[in-house]
Design brief:
The structure holds two protein chains of two kinds.
Chain A lengths: L1 E8 L4 E9 L5 E5 L6 H8 L7 E6 L2 E2 L5 H8 L2 E4 L11 H5 L1 H5 L4 H14 L15 H13 L5 E5 L7 H18 L3 E5 L2 H9 E4 L4 E4 L9 E7 L2 E6 L1 H5 L4 H7 L1
Parallel strand pairs in A: 3-8, 3-11, 6-7, 7-8
Antiparallel strand pairs in A: 1-2, 1-4, 4-5, 9-10, 11-12
Helix pairs in contact in A: 5-6, 6-7
Chain B lengths: L1 H28 L8 H40 L6 H39 L2 H7 L4 H38 L5 H10 L3 H27 L4 H34 L5
Helix pairs in contact in B: 1-5, 2-3, 2-5, 3-5, 3-6, 3-7, 3-8, 5-6, 5-7, 7-8
Classes of the chains: A alpha/beta, B mainly alpha.
Chain lengths: 258, 261
């Protein structure tokens, strides 16, 4: 996935200006920035939910900036997206939410049930199979949204502030799931957050299959495939590793880190 | 400054009409290309058709009754109280049945479509659907439009029948006139163009109320307050358009059937 000189404005000043970056296979990119800086907009541009005014966006090697919506639907089936508040369909059960794509593809009920149970087991919510989203907590809804995004084992994942508004314990559970997904399936992803702690945890931890949990990497080591981007006033002002981020001399980056 | 405001408003109206035309046309044409969501069509038919039955029956009965009361009082002044049946049936079938049903169903369903889709927009459920590779226009709008067209057709027949029955009840029990005469007059003076007029209109009205309801729902912005605004706009626009389009269709059909009348 690659952005080349992408700009976008709604009514008023530009939301994104001349943004360029890419996500390579197996890479996890964490997009940092304060609230209202255009992070979610950038994420929606990535799979064509919004269109740029200028510039070029490539997804799986295809230029999508001017691609017709009908062709984009097929491309989006290869991506998974977790929305800020989960965006679960409130009239459907957890089973039907997670299986939404499979139901549209008319997959057999038995296979749907087994794949939904597997996805729910991955996010640790086996017992919610028949629940409605309204009976779940905020953290559980995000985990169901992750299960929904993962059920077709997408080739590229987008996370829009998956821990926003959650307590620290639940946030850690969500980050653990994202790290688990990263280290088990190795799918590339783009994660938007304004929480430095979550970003640093992702970079300094890995999933340990033996213990079934997230464990810290040895002191001084970071995940080489997890790197950072930072947006400020619609411009991409930083693109680099954790080491480069913490040693950056860019005034806004230093202010944000402090 | 004033010119600028007029310019902006005019452009905004033209753009809205253009957006609506494209939206409504695409939603209509979706029926001719797969995938077609038949289960959603059946669910919507149940919600719109069976769900609106009670209000259509009640309003049909009352309107027929009021027509009989009012017309009998006026007609008897000319010694023509016997044609009450003809008056009620023609008025219900040609005009009041379709328009009343259209406006009642629009009040119930255009509002429900606008608020339901509007809530889905503001909670990002529509974006989530698109991100999951499903076309919301095809999945949510097209079934609602075709269900509304089909159900309004049948609901109009129900409203017509209830109106004539209500008129009959008032004629017999309140105006103390002959029931057989009422129903004979109601039946004998019905002509083919009257039936066509009465059954063509709901096809247009169903399309208008559902496409307007869905259009405003899908354009919702501004959170829960925006949902309320979309709902009001949908009901008002759909009701006004139904009455305006009724005038146009009546004019066209009267010209077409000029030789029959």
């Amino acid at each position: 996935m690659a952005f080349r000189n992408v700009s976008l404005a709604f009514a008023g000043p530009p939301v994104l200006q001349d943004v360029s970056f890419s996500v390579a296979p197996g890479e996890t990119r964490i997009l940092l920035g304060p609230a209202g800086v255009g992070k979610s907009v950038l994420l929606k541009l990535t799979n064509g939910l919004l269109r740029p005014d200028q510039g070029c966006i490539r997804l799986f090697g295809e230029e999508i900036s001017h691609m017709p919506e009908q062709k984009l639907f097929a491309l989006r089936l290869r991506t998974g997206m977790v929305f800020q508040e989960g965006a679960l369909f409130d009239s459907l059960t957890v089973r039907d939410n997670v299986a939404y794509q499979l139901i549209q593809e008319q997959v057999a009920d038995e296979e749907i049930d087994s794949r939904v149970r597997e996805a729910l087991h991955f996010v640790g919510l086996d017992e919610t199979f028949r629940f409605f989203p309204s009976s779940l907590s905020g953290g559980m809804r995000r985990r169901v949204a992750i299960a929904r995004a993962l059920i077709r084992q997408p080739e590229f994942l987008l996370y829009d502030s998956p821990t926003g508004g959650l307590d620290p314990v639940t946030s850690t559970t969500i980050i653990e799931l994202i790290v688990k997904q990263r280290d088990v399936y190795h799918s590339p992803s783009l994660l938007v957050t304004h929480r430095l702690q979550d970003a640093f945890t992702m970079c300094t931890h890995h999933f340990d299959a033996a213990t079934g949990g997230m464990v810290p990497l040895p002191k001084g080591q970071t995940d080489p495939n997890t790197t950072f981007l930072m947006l400020s006033e619609g411009r991409l002002i930083f693109d680099g590793s954790l080491h480069e981020l913490v040693h950056s001399q860019i005034p806004f980056v230093r202010e944000f880190l402090q | 400054m004033a010119l600028e405001t007029i310019d902006k408003t005019a452009k905004s109206i033209v753009l809205t009409v253009q957006d609506y035309s494209l939206f409504a046309w695409r939603a209509l044409m979706n029926l001719f290309h797969p995938p077609i969501y038949w289960p959603d069509f059946l669910i919507q038919s149940d919600i719109i058709g069976f769900g609106s039955l009670s209000i259509v029956v009640l309003s049909g009965l009352s309107t027929g009754g009021v027509l009989a009361l009012q017309s009998a009082a006026t007609l008897s002044a000319f010694g023509a109280a016997a044609v009450t049946g003809q008056f009620v049936s023609l008025t219900m079938i040609r005009e009041l049945g379709p328009v009343l049903t259209g406006v009642m169903v629009s009040g119930r369903n255009a509002s429900s479509m606008a608020s339901e889709l509007g809530s889905m927009v503001v909670t990002e459920q529509i974006d989530a659907m698109r991100a999951l590779g499903v076309d919301p226009l095809r999945k949510l709008v097209t079934p609602r439009i075709y269900a509304s067209i089909a159900m309004l057709f049948f609901l109009t027949i129900v409203a017509d029948a209830c109106g004539i029955l209500g008129g009959g009840a008032v004629t017999v029990f309140m105006n103390n006139q002959n029931g057989t005469q009422y129903f004979a007059m109601a039946w004998e003076h019905l002509r083919f163009p009257d039936i066509v007029q009465g059954l063509v209109k709901p096809l247009f009205f169903g399309y208008i109320l559902s496409s307007i309801g869905c259009f405003y729902g899908m354009r919702t912005t501004g959170g829960t307050q925006g949902v309320g605004r979309s709902t009001i706009q949908a009901v008002v626009t759909a009701s006004v358009l139904i009455i305006f389009v009724d005038f146009l269709i009546t004019q066209v059909l009267l010209s077409l059937f000029a030789g029959w009348m």
